[in-house]
Amino acid sequence: MSIKTSGLHHVTAIGGDPQRNADFYLRTLGLRLVKTTVNFDDPGTFHLYYGDEAGRPGSLMTFFPWPAAPRGRRGSGQATTTSFSVPADSIGWWRDHLAEARVTTGRIVNRDGEDVLTFDDPDGLQLALVAHPQGDPRAPWDNGFVPAERAIRALHSVTLSVTGEEATAEMLRELGLNFAGQDSNRLRFTAGEGGPGAIVDVLVTPGTPRGLVSTGTVHHVAWRVPDEPTQAAWREELLDRGVKVTSILDRQYFRSIYFREPGGTLLEVATDQPGFAVDEPLLELGRALKLPPWLEPDREQIEHALPKLDLPRENNPELV
């Protein structure tokens, strides 16, 4: 394809209890809640966006927390691991920090020259912290829970699990990603200049049962484009190639299209603009429930249906 993504925009997963979700991602992982809104297709459910100070594309992990939903199942046709980038000398600190928070971790392994620490969030979503030896220049969210010199920088990569790699690899190449190497049954592809935030690993596990998307699993993975005209051109190219793709959808903070790669994972192409300061100041991000204009007439009903959510003051430190 003539259009290429520069890297990951966000990863969206399904959580359980929203307060437990916020406590873990804010206090344990030290991310910032940059937007408190609702699932536009299911307004009785929160949509929580976590990221760096401004919620820049590439830093974002988002959740639909459905307390009553059953536990999902990791398997083929899913993004099975979401990885965050941390400073090169901080993996040991994170292992100890997570142990203090009573989070069970795997052993530290070295993969492609990077130290990797894997663990699950409270709903069973598999996460990893990855320390790139050359570092990551992206600025962390400086808060009171994790020291800035140890803090998560942004997304590092995602892992797609498939039973066969050929068709998935072909589509990733069509999306502008480059094959970067293979380690046993793991194939690495990179976008743009590569490095943290621009990596997808394809894990090939023949015979693995299909995953079930529900609590503790990834719903979709989003890739970046700079603006709507680029997105529209990409959509036309996908349609020309016979890919079933949605119309362009207004997500208030970006515009989106969705389609599935041949292995089964739902992918999104999201614009970098307009961003999360479009409806509230930077210092107040995440503080109040924000609704798109078409849902504002139903605000009272929506607020009544949503569970209570308490945020730590560190999410908006200059306002307290």
Summarize the topology.
Blueprint: E1 8-15, H1 18-28, E2 32-39, E3 42-51, E4 60-65, E5 78-86, H2 91-100, E6 109-111, E7 114-120, E8 126-131, E9 154-162, H3 166-174, E10 178-183, E11 186-190, E12 199-204, E13 217-225, H4 228-240, E14 249-250, E15 255-260, E16 266-271, H5 299-305
Parallel strand pairs: 1-4, 5-8, 9-12, 13-16
Antiparallel strand pairs: 1-13, 2-3, 3-4, 5-9, 6-7, 7-8, 10-11, 11-12, 14-15, 15-16
Succession of helices and strands: EHEEEEHEEEEHEEEEHEEEH
Q: What kind of assembly state do the chains in view correspond to?
A: single chain
Mean pLDDT: 94
* The CATH H-level homologous superfamily: 2,3-Dihydroxybiphenyl 1,2-Dioxygenase, domain 1
- How many individual helices? 5
CATH class: Alpha Beta
Q: Approximately what portion of the residues adopt beta-strand conformation? A: 25-35%
How many strand elements?
16
Tell me what the CATH architecture is. Answer: Roll
Arrangement of strands in the largest sheet: 2-3-4-1-13-16-15-14
CATH topology: 2,3-Dihydroxybiphenyl 1,2-Dioxygenase, domain 1
Shape: globular
* Distance from first to last alpha carbon: 49 Å
Radius of gyration: 19 Å
Query: Quick one: biggest sheet?
Result: 8 strands, mixed
Overall tally of domains = 1
Q: What portion of residues is helical?
A: 10-25%
Organism: Amycolatopsis rhizosphaerae
Protein name: Ring-cleaving dioxygenase
GO molecular function, one term: dioxygenase activity
Keywords: Dioxygenase, Oxidoreductase
Structural description of this entry:
This protein has 320 residues and is of the alpha+beta class. It has one domain (8-319): 2,3-Dihydroxybiphenyl 1,2-Dioxygenase, domain 1 (Roll). It is 16% helix and 33% strand. It has 5 helices and 16 strands. It is globular, with a radius of gyration of 19 Å. The model has no long low-confidence stretch (mean pLDDT 94).
